Amino acid sequence: MIAGLLGLALLAGLGYALRWRSNPSPCPYAQRHAINFPRPVITRSRLRDVLQPRSGERLLEVGPGTGYYTGMAAQAIEPSGTLHAVDVQSEMVEHLRTRMRREGTQNVEPIRGDARSLPYPDDAFDAAYLVLVLGEIPDQERALDELERVLKPDGRLVVGESLPDPHFVGFEGLRRRVERRGLAFDARVGTRAGYFVRFDVSPSGEPTDSVE
């Protein structure tokens, strides 16, 4: 009896995951507690190592949610740097604004916006990052175009992915898609099941040396 119920629950969960994967959408605000769980592979310290944020830079975070990585990145670019955090859900934006105010972080600008049409001019940011977000965007290609557009000629893009996220984006396919846009693979940390990867905007269009 118990085994049968567990089997049904597993099938139901699998069916939900498959439907969610075939219909990309952000994590609902009602389920926000799930995105605050520890992330053993895609940790804050690893993101900082790959992103290499520097004081005074202007950074972009796409899909910050409740701000799992936001405070770390904002602190790294103090005192004169600014982090723009763009989320498509107004509830997440307000949650993040409240959290940053409570933590005393003053250099974060939470903004409601769509990754497929970022509200910024060309060459606006030194670096951009998105973690567990790309697969949730209905038009990933357009989002990648937008990220390339708003990055400065010497800018950096970091993407983080990890299973069991139903919207997981594999590294090999992502690398091909990003390199077609003129960004060069620079570094990767993690495993096939969870990783951060960094791409650099190459003004000449030539790839840089990779660092594993």
Topology of this protein?
Layout: H1 2-22, H2 44-51, E1 58-62, H3 70-76, E2 82-87, H4 90-103, E3 108-112, E4 125-131, H5 140-150, E5 151-162, H6 171-179, E6 183-191, E7 194-201
Parallel strand pairs: 1-2, 1-4, 2-3, 4-5
Antiparallel strand pairs: 5-7, 6-7
CATH architecture: 3-Layer(aba) Sandwich
CATH homology superfamily name = Vaccinia Virus protein VP39
Q: How is the quaternary structure best described? A: single chain
Assign a percent range to the helix content.
25-40%
Characterise this structure.
With 212 residues, the chain is an alpha/beta fold. The protein contains six helices and seven strands. A seven-stranded mixed beta sheet has the order 3-2-1-4-5-7-6, sandwiched between helices. The termini are far apart. Mean pLDDT is 88; it is low at 5-21 and 207-212.
